[in-house]
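Hi all, posting the design record for the shared folder.

TITLE: backbone redesign
STEP: 1 of 1
STRUCTURE INPUT:
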């Protein structure tokens, strides 16, 4: 009988044990692959959102922390304390373009959505939006809403339909073409209308600033700070801060998955140790037939490796499916909005790496049982009952 046939026979000898050991490996590797797939999409998603913001500098309320910076990129509700006079002061600085935004929240069909108050004419030029259907705001103080493409599709909204925001029926004027960022999931109102609906007359959440000379970004930031007592952060600083926060969360999730993998490894050790004691007589017969200690060691190591290989394949498939189907059900908040908005892409190299990693972990877990089996003397093993 060849080693491969012997390994297969030993694996299926105790089918219940075989299945439960595999399940442990699959769940551990599945959770690891899920977090890796989600985490791998976060960086590119953050880069897209930062680019879509279209700003070199962002002016925030004084004392804003990294949480507010995350909220700016995700479209979450923000403190609204920047006054119209401060916006006018910022706009008066030569060599830059300043666009104010009012970030709020609402719900459509009991599902939360982002609402953004904008200056229509300035914002469409600033962000280079294109209209897909209907019409855009005819004036800066127009009543009505313009929707992001994905939000309009999710709720089946077309130009002429109505949505309810803060107790008011708002007519849908048009739908934007897809941008690939959070704008696709946002309801846009003219700034005066949004301020009126949310009782924020004369106030905005933040100001996006684009400078004429990129090599003088720090100079413009200092000019803003001299004029108004507000926070100023560059797009690079914001991106770095957000990536740091999301990276910490991602590492924590992967460590949790690593614990599951470690538990699965101990399951393999237990399974292989049990097999060593149950098959002492078989080991003795193999040795009597000419099998060397190295041969017995390789046999047990191969068996544990097969556990890891099969479990790795199952875990990679399970994790990939979970990453794709679980993403839409992740709660919407500032910490998870990037996950929810990310387009999860499964990297074949990552799946291959997960399978190899699973096989390696299983083989390491099988080292001790394999050594124990190889050290059995032929007389002791063959006389075992």
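Okay, here is what came back for every position:
SEQUENCE:
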């Amino acid at each position: 009988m060849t080693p491969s046939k012997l390994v297969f026979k030993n694996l299926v000898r105790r089918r219940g044990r075989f299945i439960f050991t595999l399940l442990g490996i699959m769940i551990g590797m599945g959770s690891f692959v899920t977090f890796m797939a989600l985490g791998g999409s976060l960086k590119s998603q953050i880069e897209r959102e930062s680019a879509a913001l279209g700003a070199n500098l962002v002016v925030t309320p004084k004392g804003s922390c990294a949480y507010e910076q995350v909220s700016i990129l995700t479209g979450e509700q923000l403190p609204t304390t920047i006054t119209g006079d401060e916006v006018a002061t910022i706009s008066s600085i030569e060599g830059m373009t300043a666009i104010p935004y009012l970030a709020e929240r609402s719900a459509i069909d009991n599902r939360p959505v982002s609402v953004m108050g904008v200056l229509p004419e300035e914002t469409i030029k600033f962000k280079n939006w294109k209209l897909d259907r209907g019409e855009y705001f005819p004036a800066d103080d127009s009543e009505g809403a313009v929707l992001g493409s994905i939000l309009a599709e999710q709720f089946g909204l077309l130009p002429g339909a109505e949505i309810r925001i803060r107790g008011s029926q708002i007519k849908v004027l048009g739908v934007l073409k897809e941008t690939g960022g959070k704008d696709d999931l946002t309801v846009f109102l003219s700034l005066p209308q949004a301020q009126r609906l949310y009782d924020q007359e004369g106030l905005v959440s933040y100001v996006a600033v684009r400078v004429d000379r990129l090599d003088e970004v720090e100079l413009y930031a200092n000019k803003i700070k001299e004029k108004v007592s507000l926070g100023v952060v560059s797009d690079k600083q914001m991106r770095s801060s957000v990536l740091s926060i999301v990276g910490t969360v991602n590492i924590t999730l992967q460590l949790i998955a690593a614990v599951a993998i470690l538990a699965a490894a101990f399951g393999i050790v237990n399974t292989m140790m049990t097999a060593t004691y149950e098959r002492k007589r078989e080991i003795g017969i193999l040795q009597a037939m000419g099998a060397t200690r190295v041969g017995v060691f390789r046999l047990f190591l191969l068996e544990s490796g097969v556990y890891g290989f099969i479990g790795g394949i199952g875990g990679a498939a399970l994790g990939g499916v979970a990453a794709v189907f679980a993403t839409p059900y992740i709660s919407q908040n500032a910490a998870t909005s990037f996950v929810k908005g990310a387009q999860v892409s499964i990297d074949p190299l990552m799946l291959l790496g997960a399978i190899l990693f699973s096989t390696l972990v299983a083989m390491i877990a099988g080292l001790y049982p394999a050594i124990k089996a190889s050290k059995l003397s032929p007389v002791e093993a063959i006389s075992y009952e």
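COMMENT: DSSP finds 15 helices and twelve strands in the chain.
Let me know if anyone wants the other runs.
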